[in-house]
Amino acid sequence: MSIPQSLLCIALLIAVSAFFSIAEMALAASRSVRLRQMADAGDVRALRVLRMQQQPGRYFTVVQIGVNAVAILGGIAGEGALTPWLHTLLAPWMSEAAAHTLALALSVVLITSAFVVFADLAPKRLGMAEPERVALAVIAPMEKLLFAFAPLVWLYTRSTDWAMRALGLPMQRDERITTDDILAMAEEGTRAGVIDRPEQQVIENVFELDTRGVTSAMTPRDRIAWLRSDASEEEIRLHIAATPYSSYPVCDEELDRVLGYADAKEMLQSVLRQQPLRLGEGSALLHRLLVVPDTLSLSEVLQTFRQKGEDFALIVNEYGTVVGLITLGDVMSTVMGGLVTPDDEELIVRRDDGSWLIDGHTPMQDVRRALALEEPPGQEDYDTLAGFLMVMLRRVPRRTDCVHWGGHRFEVLDVDNFRADQVLVTPVAGSGADAADASEKTDTPL
Q1: pLDDT tens digits along 144-162
Q2: Is the whole model's pTM more than 0.90, yes or no?
Q3: What is the DSSP letter of 120?
């Protein structure tokens, strides 16, 4: 063949090889979720691609037959395509043998480079960038090739299946989508600007409900607003006015002796009807209160709310002592995060100097996420930042106590009822070993 004919033959072979490369990559990279969406929208080609993904062996057999055939033909055609022309250029500058050898080597390098770039790298990159669209475009010709090469496809497919079974290798791709897959896709969507950061946070929070304990989102015992069963009508009115909520636990003299709960709307209706407010046993205003153990996860609490038809519950420990109160709103606030939390109620506040002011009741998982911390020690022993400080200090925190961990300095600014209430977190450049510093600088009593 003449040089133009050889070059035309090589160009055709590159085009054929590029088709097989892009077809192979498009099928492998196509997302099943996206294809199902296209199929639901009425694109029948998407269904054909999905069926091919479920049994891809025959498809890839045709691809390999085509790629290897093109490689063999390319080697035959490429050897004589550029060698004579390059030999003519090099002959005046060196011996005949050297010119022939160098011309052959350069011809092989140039032809190989053309195949690598235009028949392999560029098509595969396109197949990765637009996998679903490319897969839909090539599915029809690939099905025709499957029919044309059916005998060879059957032989090679059966041989490959036998080899895979003999080696104990998986025969099909695992299409199950895990939690990690969803979180990774959400993160990629945030990086691409498709998903806002708060929306990504909601997705992460939903999957954390199974791992977050109920105590991480509860209202602690010392903040629970409750009513005494023997309280007078005036005392009940004053208490509701001072701490307005929709429901109140009703207890016999102390919080651990729970009788039930009273609904604020029902009490208001009683007042409007000029009926007496009585919360003792046997009162029509007293309802059975849901009580859950402190070992439940937020997911289990949410399921309990749904089963019982309630929207709040008291939390007790193994000794029957009330440790806190959890509401449906608390669980939803944990999921929604900053989307529903007013600015003046944020638990984690970033200051202008790069430090953080964090409420001690903040779940440690939120603190880790905000500060990009590694897993802290003994995390199974606590849920909140206050608990972390107590474990690290090995005692009840005092004002100005400091803990160094993960390149940050945690300083206790305020203590409320033996619990770290406000904590200042400052990045520490070049910090040494993480340790607890039981500061003795304070003169402020507990």
Answers
A1: 888 888 888 888 878 887 8
A2: no
A3: I
